[in-house]
Amino acid sequence: MKNVLLIVTVLFFSAFTNAQNNFQNRTIKILLNSKLTITGDTNIKSFDCVFDMGYLQKENHIKFITDDPGHIRFKNAILSLNTKGFDCGSAPINRDFHKLIQSDKHPQILIELLEVRLQKAGSANAVVNITIAGTRKEHTFPVEFTAGAVSNIKGILMLDIKDFKLEPPKKLFGMIVVKDEIEIDFDLSIQK
C-alpha cells in the first residue's frame, strides 16, 4: 500500500512539474507610442486621464501556454501603472483623481492578463485581474489585435468604481458628482 501511495505521489508531482514546464518564456516591450486613458464622467462633463508611457517598465518577462487552439493562458503578464503617470489635464482634476484611486496608499494600478480566448481573426476575449486601491477584480472584455514583430492590441474595459470600494468625489456641495462607471481605453504597441 505504501508503494502504491508513493508511485501515485511521484506521478502526480511529475505531471504537475511537466505542466509547469510547458509554459514558454517571452520578453516583451510596450512601446512609447502606445496609449492608455482612463475616462470618467460627471453630471456636467467628462474627463480623460492620460497615462505617460514613460512610466512603464522597459521590458516585461511573461510566460504563456496554449492549452488548445484559440486559448492562451499567461503568467506574470502584468502591466503596472504608476499612478504618478496619469495626467487629467488640470491640477484640481488630478488631485481628485489621485484621491479617488487612493494613490498615496496604493501607487500602482495593476492589470494582469490571465488568459485570451480567440473569437475570430483579429478579435479575442481577454480575462484580466485589475487591482485598484488594493482591491482586485476579474473582468472579461473584447479586444482587437494584429500580430507581427510589433503587435497591436486595442480595447475598452468598462469598470464600476464601487467594485473597488471607491467613493466618487462630490464637488460644490454635491452639485457635481462623478459617475460610478469609468473606462480604460488602451491601444498598445508590443514588441517581442
TrEMBL record:
<protein>
    <submittedName>
        <fullName>YceI family protein</fullName>
    </submittedName>
</protein>
<feature type="domain" description="Lipid/polyisoprenoid-binding YceI-like">
    <location>
        <begin position="77"/>
        <end position="189"/>
    </location>
</feature>
<dbReference type="InterPro" id="IPR036761">
    <property type="entry name" value="TTHA0802/YceI-like_sf"/>
</dbReference>
<feature type="signal peptide">
    <location>
        <begin position="1"/>
        <end position="19"/>
    </location>
</feature>
<dbReference type="InterPro" id="IPR007372">
    <property type="entry name" value="Lipid/polyisoprenoid-bd_YceI"/>
</dbReference>
<dbReference type="Pfam" id="PF04264">
    <property type="entry name" value="YceI"/>
</dbReference>
<keyword id="KW-0732">Signal</keyword>
